[in-house]
Amino acid sequence: KQHFSSSIHVASPTSNATSESADIDWDNLGFGFMPTDYMYVMKCSQGENFSEGQLLRFGNIELNPSAGILNYGQGLFEGLKAYRKHDRNILLFRPEENAMRLRMGAERMCMPSPTVEQFVEAVRETVLANEKWIPPPGKGSMYIRPLLMGSGAVLGLAPAPEYTFLIYVSPVGNYFKEGLAPINLVVETEMHRATPGGTGGVKTIGNYAAEGAFCVRRSKKWLLIHCESAEYGDSCSSFRSVRIAEISLGPSARLWLVLKAQSAAKAKGYSDVLYLDSVHKRFLEEVSSCNVFVVKGNVISTPAIKGTILPGITRKSIIDVARSQGFQVEERMVPVEELLDADEVFCTGTAVVISPVGSITYIGKRVSYGSSGVGLVSQQLYSALTRLQMGLTEDTMDWILEL
Ligand code: COI
User: Fold this and answer.
1) Does residue 349 have its Cβ closer than 6 Å to ligand 1?
2) Average pLDDT, the chain
3) What keywords is this UniProt entry annotated with (predicted)?
4) How far apart (Å, rounded) are the C-alpha atoms in residues 37 and 54?
5) Is residue 260's pLDDT more than 80?
6) Under 8 Å CB-to-CB from 335, ≥6 apart: which residues?
């Protein structure tokens, strides 16, 4: 059986329930990890159901080196946010949607998963126990990161014998260093994020690994650097902690470059990469960490969910918000050429919320949108969504859970 290190103490779920704010610089939050007080942990064996979890002091976890998650990537994650309202109440945005998506992913990854009720209750307890880390209204949000992993030991390829559901939280501000200013994307024409039949449509941990790793060339070797503490846009020298593995530069070196897509783009000054489908190499898929929308007149188009892109909860919400505001929303295959004469492009995701796109570069050709900053449609949808999430407008969709 796996266990957690002895430095972690079982905590009383209410021991930290204080409405005092943590003493941090709320005006300068980015999207970096900041440890908080408690994490939630629940375990079960293969073939069983999750039954009871507990809040533990936040800290490192101990895993058998043979754990399924470490060896075969049997793991999923989720992301959702809690907002502090002006009346000091706490709001969660559609947590049951995350619970259902986790359950769907768990089925694909042969893992047991918490019920929707267990998931939402665990999120609620974790947020309340860490309440002082929720940014004041207008200063950001608390990012909630649920993980589901095969924590039991396996050697041959098989589902792990034991599973851990864990939630930790961290106060966050804007995801992109640009803040709400438009970001600049580059269309990735050689590397692909997902393939039909793969796991691109579920939130597996492995889908994202390539996007957070950096490859640099040092003398005649390539170094694959995993950054444990990097902000977007940081240079390698500013990482607080790196783990380095050497790989030889052989004939298949170009394949390794898939690990480099995002960092290569950043090195050239782009904010992120926009992926195309791997079959036709022509249709939009998603950006490394978010879904994408293209606006032309009153029509807003976004790639259809067909197994290779993530069914984003912000994506789904924006589709409903846009339709309720009179836009025609089309979920379909969107050819990359449509970027060339779009009025606006924006990205959606829990972490990024809505991020307007200022330019997209496709095979050396740069198209700009919204000459004077954020496009009107992006601004209108951003405002409608965030006002709802922060409790500033009436929740007519019944999307908000007030704690
Ligand atoms: C989120 O938006 O919550 C995600 O999970 C994307 C992640 C890369 C930050």
Assistant:
1) yes
2) 85
3) Amino-acid biosynthesis, Aminotransferase, Branched-chain amino acid biosynthesis, Pyridoxal phosphate, Transferase
4) 13
5) no
6) 282, 283, 284
- Evaluate: CB of 358 within 6 angstroms of ligand 1: no
Q: Is 232 in the pocket of ligand 1 (CB under 6 A)?
A: no
Ligand 1 binding pocket includes 208 (Cβ within 6 Å): yes
What is the ipTM, given to two decimal places?
A: 0.98
Active-site residues, by number, are 203
Pseudo-torsion of CA 32, 37, 40, 43, nearest 10°?
Answer: 100
Q: Which residue puts its alpha carbon closest to atom 9 of ligand 1?
A: 351
Eight-class DSSP state of 218:
E
The CA 289 to ligand 1 mean position distance, Å, reads 5
In terms of Cα–Cα distance, which of 104, 275, 263, 268 is closest to 188? 275
Q: Does pTM top 0.90 for this prediction?
A: no
Which atom of ligand 1 lies nearest, measured to the CA of 212?
Answer: 8
Q: How far is the CA of 336 from the centre of ligand 1 (A)?
A: 23
Span 284-337, pLDDT tens digits: 999 989 999 999 999 999 999 999 999 999 999 999 999 999 999 999 999 999
Residue 199 has what DSSP assignment?
S
Instruction: Measure 349 CA to ligand 1 centroid, in angstroms.
Output: 7
Q: Which residue lies with its CA nearest to atom 3 of ligand 1?
A: 79
* Residue 161 vs residues 61, 129, 137, 303: alpha-carbon distances, Å: 18, 30, 43, 37
Contact criterion met (CB below 8 Å) for 310 and 200? yes
Name the residue among 27, 24, 53 with its Cα closest to residue 39: 53
Q: Which residues contact 167 (CB under 8 A, 6 or more apart)?
A: 39, 40, 122, 123, 126, 144, 145, 146, 147
Q: Indicate whether residue 26 lines ligand 1 (CB < 6 A).
A: no
pLDDT at 55 (0 to 100): 98
Cα–Cα nearest to 94, from 244, 337, 312, 381: 312
